[in-house]
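Shipment paperwork, digital attachment
Item: protein structure file
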Amino acid sequence: MSHEHHDRVVAGERVTGGAAVVKALRAEGVDTIFGIPAAHIIYIYDALLDEPGICRVLARHEQGAAFMADGYARATGRPGVVLVTDGPGVTNTATAVSEAYVDSTPLLIISSQTATPYIGQERGNLHEMKDQSGMMQSIVGAQYSVRRVAEIPHVIHAAMRRFQTERPRPVHIEIPTDILSATDEVVFVPSESYPRRSADETALDQAADLLRVAQRPLIYAGGGVVAAGAEKELLRLAQVLDAPVMTTIMGKGAIPEDHPLSLGPSRRLPPAGRALVAESDAVLAIGTKLGAMATENWKLPLPDNLIHVDIDPTVIGVSYPTRLGVVGNAKAVLDGLLARLLGVPPHPSREEQVGEANRQRLRQLWRRTPQHMRILTALRNALDRDAIVAWDMTLVGYVSTDHFPVYQSRSYLYPWTSGTLGFGLPAAIGAKVGRPEAQVVSVSGDGGFLFTGEELAAAVQHQLPVVSVVLNDQCYSAVKRLHEAEFPGRAADVMLSRVDYVKLAEAYGAEARRVSPDELGAAVSEALRQSGPVLIEVPVSLEPGW
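Attachment content:
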């Protein structure tokens, strides 16, 4: 990405609005877009034909396109770009955009809009909506409505700036059809790299003082550490302080989970883990909003000496009493703390307590969910350390949030906060596009796979060697168990008709096989050696284990 300042601009160029979109995206370093062509966005797609630097990934549904872009963004750290038509194209992305919002993913949705004179008029124009921009404003971090061709590069530049300087949340840009087809003189803005938002020096001094005198410090790392690319700084500070590190689900991989200081995810800590947290005399919570699910509805026993660091000031001190709030980018804050704490006297090691907590967690999971753990273990053993797994909402995926060892950030993709079905396969496709060198696997239940399984056709068309594991029990099992728990002997509309997923995959042109859970590891290893997509159906019968 260019490091030139934004006021160094090239000469104006007369182009259509559609061409301005493409040229602006390329100027910002965008190399991939996900979408579906439509009548109202043909001026953009036509311009894409003349831009070899941007790969076009053709989805089968706009929801799939947005999930692909989400997976691309999570796996690479670069914004995922979605191109859709107005009206139904926009509404079809809403579920995926909402998921990206709550999990803080940098997603850029570019759509058309009804021609300028008719916006909001309800005159019967194709794809018109009552209030498209208003709908999107409710689920994105920022929304822009373009009214002149010349605005296009500046609006796209503003979106990219937000992704770098603020909490990374989706941005929607709508451009009326008459603006996309119009021609004007356009000045294109070079991309920028913005300085990271550092914390106030006094706040850093105070945070360092609290950590320096603590005898039993602990670090709680969230997705903000991953978003900032601060994994090395996190590990270094943990080693300087001899501090155990637990993570949120979005923070998995911020520290390798086989490191002796890794306490694993914060949810459902075993008794030894909860005791370790409770006895800590200072906690540095960095890049996490300390949300309900991560803390088991705020039952995680965090101590009074809580230092809460986040780039978003609105989350600090909301969920837990905070001794010190620090607003800033996680990498900049960790750098500042390291500069102040290098040379601090060693703290008493708690590695043995961390190890016992992790062993206790494993014993609990093998006792409560042995079938799930066999599947997770077979899958983990079949994969490289840096392999990417995109999880759908499934019983096995749910247990993976408690234990699926992750050794590298951006390799565990999970629709955590929204909990939407249909995320797994398209997110895996997006991840493979962004990280073609990595092994990429999706894990779905049969119910979740049917939400977006048509995207297997996109993987075939683009010859993407993604392995899709479908755990098939012909049931919405989690809902069934929850309903029965509240109303014994009763469960409504949870059984699914039989689908032959092997034949379905083969109909799309993918390789497919059906294996038992005991054969899964070998099947995944073999599938990863293929040159195109492979679906593995695994008939299962699983209890929820909660």
